[in-house]
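Final report, results section. Input specification for complex C-07:
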Amino acid sequence: MHQPDPHKLSLNTATVRQQWTLAQIIEGCARHDIRGISPWRDQVAELGLLQTSRMIKQHGLTVTGYCRGGMFPGNDEAERRRHLQDNQRAVDEALELNAACLVLVVGGLPAGSKDLSGARNQVRDGLSALLDYSRPRGMNLAIEPLHPMYAADRACVNTLSQANDLCDELGDDGLGLAIDLYHTWWDPNFQQEITRAGSKRLLAFHICDWLNPTQDLLEDRGMMGDGVINIRAFRQSVEALGYIGFHEVEIFSRKNWWMRDPDEVLRVCKARHKEHG
Amino acid sequence: MHQPDPHKLSLNTATVRQQWTLAQIIEGCARHDIRGISPWRDQVAELGLLQTSRMIKQHGLTVTGYCRGGMFPGNDEAERRRHLQDNQRAVDEALELNAACLVLVVGGLPAGSKDLSGARNQVRDGLSALLDYSRPRGMNLAIEPLHPMYAADRACVNTLSQANDLCDELGDDGLGLAIDLYHTWWDPNFQQEITRAGSKRLLAFHICDWLNPTQDLLEDRGMMGDGVINIRAFRQSVEALGYIGFHEVEIFSRKNWWMRDPDEVLRVCKARHKEHG
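Structure output:
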């Protein structure tokens, strides 16, 4: 199919979080007939887990991912244990929300460290420990490779290949990938690695656009169609491999979309998803 | 050797170009006993090619690379031919300066394009055409993989693996890699790909640091030691493979190093090279 299924549009709540509370976002999705949602932990904590769960069910929304777990590395065993315990709570919350997966931003270098491969080993070990908790409970963990510009501070898993390697090593029962085009569109091995992943590992698919020029490392993502990513071609590639999940829009945009009327943002998301998704 | 050979420090002129003319930079390198220099084309044009060449010889400096050729992609054949002709002139200038190599920033997407793999094919074709010119004249071309955050606007060759693939495909006679740690420190295949490259292909080695946090995509590079890159370990890795060239410092830093007394910048470069290089 050339155009995307409009019912597969999902809204990552970060896209309008500056304007709306989580309750307003849930109601906004329902009002605009956006059927998927991916909320963030701090927003859920503010609204209350059970209240969030109730509202999402009441409006018939699918939780396409829960943002987020991860941040595994730490400078000592105690810090890493605290991270694990926090991740276990995130798994419990994701279960309560009936989320398709817990999205993992795996963490970067521990404070003061220059040991990137050591951090990567800590991610593997932390993920392995979390799987011992998530697997028996039936919650999928989705490793999200982040753009290499976040290797130091947010995630030292920066390519689809690394994420696939982790799935190979730890087993892909309840473990897979969250593919965000903002982070991976540049990867010369994109097609090769999603093929290697296959539909079993493709747990989430996030879209937005890469603006050229980009003004800010963190909060200058583009609306679909405003940048240089051939979103449709990538979406067709993952669907050709059997991905049947949602297309989750996640836009951090301090100077543009976060300043607009959120109803307008949702209308534009729907239109651009149809045109470019 | 644990510490770097201090005589292998080279200064990419971008590091103090906001404060000094090229003539002042050449004299500054000589005054500070920095024996390598890597000038940019616009500065050379301003000072004059022959005058630059004379001054560099007079002060006994080694030109560790000439910045820069590349920018191969274009929207039509005429644009690409103009780029090729400009690159041929850059080869001639590099020869006049007796540069170790012409550094190639290969270019990103042509204006309005979303076809990244097409741009990569144009890079391969443009590079192939330029090799027909550079090889008989004996000037090395050094492909510099740029950080993926520059894939759209500056270089669609973003990994050492891609650069090695180009060397495999086009032959590595007169063709190799410029390894800049700012662009490649995050690469999980760094060791594997420099091993694959081997000393024959290692034509240049650029250093600076990745600041955490980084404030700007282009002009917030760090002085060695101020960031998260284990520069010494990387330098030892390339030298263990047989690299015997210079360590070229290239720092774009609008709000810090470009605002300082350039004599101080050069003193700090030397000290930090010794401590962290």
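Chain A has a mean pLDDT of 98. Strands of chain A lie at 9-12, 36-38, 62-63, 66-70, 102-105, 141-143, 175-180, 202-207, 247-249. This concludes the modelling results for the funded period.
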